[in-house]
Amino acid sequence: MQALQFERTGDLDALRLVELADPVPAADEVLVEVRAAGLNPSDVKNVLGRFPYTTLPRVPGRDFAGVVVEGPQALLGQAVWGTGKDLGFFRDGSHASLLTLPAKGVALMPKSLGFAQAASCGVPFSTAWDALERSGVKAGTRLLVIGAGAVGSAALALAKALGAQPLAGVRRAEQASALQAQGFASLLLDTPEALAGQVEAVFPGGAEVIFDTTGFWLPAAVNALASFGRIAIIAAPMDGQVQLPALALYRRGGSLVGINSLLYDSVACARMLTQFGQWFDDGRLPLPEGLNQVPLSAGPQCYREVNAGSSDKIVLIP
Fold first, then answer.
1. What's the CATH code, domain 124-258?
2. What is the pLDDT of residues 40-62, one digit of tens each?
3. I want to staple 127 with a disulfide (CB 3.0 to 4.6 A). Which of 118, 137, 217, 261 is the partner?
């Protein structure tokens, strides 16, 4: 099979397109013919050596959509999708034409999604779902999502599907206009000191949940929080340090929730995808758009583009 593979870390030049023997599934596994595989920043960081538990040589890639060609009879021929912390780190991942993983690590693909659309959802939607669940977002929750990248956009869509009151906080006017065209209330972020007043103008009493997807707004978010509110975070500054206004946080009865998608293996992620996947079919979630579909052979160059800061949602097609 064709695959992207790296035998050392620290340099994207280590990633090459290679021919490998077809993988053979174990008794409790499936063999998936990969039709599309998402490319995430964590895949790039993996090749660069940011994850010390990665074993080498390794095929990277977490997100996939494809067809089961070997495995339990009930899954044979079924279109499936998935993601997980095991893929691409300590077992070969999805940036290949074939993939093995536990049979319980795949979920049936929503019928309304194409393979590329499904492959674009894994990490962003499972991360957003985890953030909303663990911070207690439900119908009516006043939610501020800071940042409108892949995870932020997924969080807004899922929150709307849950019946919450999502508000997007973005830096650029064109982002705010685009979100408003999609039916999302938005505010144009000013200075950190101004955030509490901006949120108060929309949510009197503050936001019950603030999900910061950028890593830069945690201190400011505390003062924009309602009593007993929760702040979910998925990122931090490069040095990992934040000066937290602890007095303001505890006086509000506030809580911090750390969100890390690499805590969940493919089996846990398949359960998440099953929970919200039907919402694509019933119209509660919008279908992914604007995907950049490229052949697997162009993968090494795509890794460089993501590392250089490209915001394109790239899907590799074996």
1. 3.40.50.720
2. 999 999 999 999 999 999 999 99
3. 261
